[in-house]
Amino acid sequence: MTDLKKLAHLALGKLHLLTREEQELLLMEIEKAEKEEVRQKRQSSFLPFVHAIWPEFIEGYHHGIVAEAFEEVVFGSCKRVIINMPPRHTKSEFASYLLPAWFLGNFPTKKVIQTSHTAELAVGFGRKVRNLVNSEEFQQIFDVTKLQQDSKAAGRWSTNKGGEYFAIGVGGAVTGKGADLLIIDDPHSEQEAKLAVHKPDVFDNVYEWYTSGPRQRLQPGGRIIIVMTRWSLRDLTGHVIKASGTRGGEEWKVIELPAILPSGRPLWPQYWSLGELTKLKEELPVAKWNELFLNFFLKPSSIGCRPCRVIILRSSILFNQFIEEINKPGNQSLRELIVTPILLSLVCSIFLKRTTFPRKR
Q1: Which domains does the chain have, with CATH numbers?
Q2: Lowest-confidence range among 214-218, 291-295, 357-361?
Q3: Is 355 left (phi over 0), alpha (psi -120 to 50) or beta?
């Protein structure tokens, strides 16, 4: 397609040699090639798809991190991802609405199980996904994927190619259903958090349901995405990471995105200003703010794991800052120091406290 465009644009410089009819035909071919290139970009990359479907979308840097993780899962380079994000940072719009539609657009024969903490919420998203797949905007991008004619149920429908979508709330039965992609979106609720004050093991129920239900429904080669706000060390993220480490289980890529970065900058300044977040912080109990908005727990973890089994990405923003800082001429001695994982960990801990390194006096 790109070669066709190059040839067409080269020909533009010789328009005077063409008849009017040939000129119009050439311009039509150029326009057609450009539209096809845009369409293919929306098929292969998540954020261009998002912008096409949601024109009002306000993009932040963290959306690029999330989109890259989704692409790795959808196209097979990574099979297990956990993304911990603060409330109101487009978790559900991405994970429960746009992602399953984009996945089925690319793979109309595959099966999706989508979960939320209530059946009502899950079915509501199922309705949105179904309507999106059936929309003109979606069909302009994925003209092969269509709804099966008799698919009317909001939480349970099929594509014309045999693919399936099934929405379920936490605790619901998934017997008889399989998943090439399992999406778990905010499996815990505020009610659980209230109960957990007096009954900490209330969070364990979600993990029990996950292991006895959805996890067993995964097809060979199936993939899992968990997107959630942290609530406790015993929430689903905590249990999954513990199982990964203590039992030598599956390796997970874990992306933690705090509302306010250690540098003091907001994660999504285009939408959440530092002033707004500071007001919210002042109104919330310290523990709630730390857990929900920073993914940080004051109590020592009682369900720790072997770090080598879990890939922790605090944020690509911090990673880029670290690389930029460590490569500055004045930090040569630090670069020479990080020759073992323990020393690297020490240098990283120094950086995280200030997002810079102390200067020699």
Answers
A1: 1-44 (no CATH), 60-311 (3.40.50.300), 315-361 (no CATH)
A2: 357-361
A3: left
